[in-house]
Specification:
By secondary structure, the chain is an all-alpha fold. Helices cover 68% and strands 0% of the residues. Helix 1 runs antiparallel to helix 2, helix 3 packs antiparallel against helix 4 and helix 3 packs parallel to helix 5. The protein is globular and about 40 Å long. The chain starts with a helix and ends in an 18-residue tail after the last helix.
Length: 127
């Protein structure tokens, strides 16, 4: 049985492959969600899994759902840079006021990235 850390490392590798295999985007997203859901069943307070599932939902355009997972990680006290960046991205896509997302971006500046997490995709041209 693989450890949670190994599973999160595999999730990060699979996430990177989504961009190389856009023909399989939906299938890979489904795999990512399934794996992250399983991790969260075992460890509901696993902040890297919460941050990553939030990023995947953001990439899928499901920002309300993404925000729920990201806020859970925030409420659990995560200090991961990717959490704050992802919160900013989701709030931008949700059309929130600039002050709301800039606060998270400023907070992200002094943080470090957890090697087990990743950022949601952000396309400023899509706004």
């Amino acid at each position: 049985m693989s450890t949670i850390k190994q599973r999160l490392e595999n999730v990060k590798k699979l996430q990177a492959k989504r961009w190389e295999n856009e023909d399989h985007w939906d299938t890979l997203n489904d795999l990512l969600i399934r794996e992250l859901d399983e991790i969260l069943l075992i460890e509901p307070d696993n902040t890297p899994a919460l941050i990553n599932i939030g990023a995947v939902y953001s990439d899928m355009g499901e920002n309300e759902k993404a925000l729920e997972y990201l806020n859970t990680a925030l409420n659990l006290g995560s200090e991961d840079k990717n959490l704050f960046v992802n919160l900013s991205i989701v709030l931008v896509y949700m059309g929130k006021h600039q002050e709301e997302y800039l606060e998270y971006l400023e907070e992200a500046e002094d943080k470090t990235e957890d090697p087990l997490t990743f950022k949601a995709y952000f396309d400023p041209q899509s706004l």
